[in-house]
Write a structure and sequence with these properties.
By secondary structure, this protein is mainly alpha-helical. It has one domain. The protein has four helices and three strands; from the N terminus they run H-E-H-E-H-H-E. The protein has a three-stranded mixed sheet, with helices on one face. The two termini are about 30 Å apart.
Amino acid sequence: MSELQSFADAYHRLVLELADYQEKSIKLAMGGTRVKKIFIDGGFADNEIYTTLIDRAFPKIKVRITKSPLGSALGAALLMRNRKIGSKFLKVHYGLKKIARKLKKST
């Protein structure tokens, strides 16, 4: 831990490691399934660094943020319902929004 010289260093290391662990967990859970969207909810939905890292880890999958504290329960309900819910419903009732994908600057 000697490489951590400040709070900012420690914070960024923590977020990087959490995002890396989450990426591995998502890939394991997906298995061979084709996933079209990943939803981030709860406290991590407010963390721009974390959400950007997850978005970059899955460039072929739409990553969305929801302000719903009960997003996991919503996901389970959607699976049980087995019917498509329109994006307008999710945007209005759950604060669904896209992550702004930023282009890398070339050096």
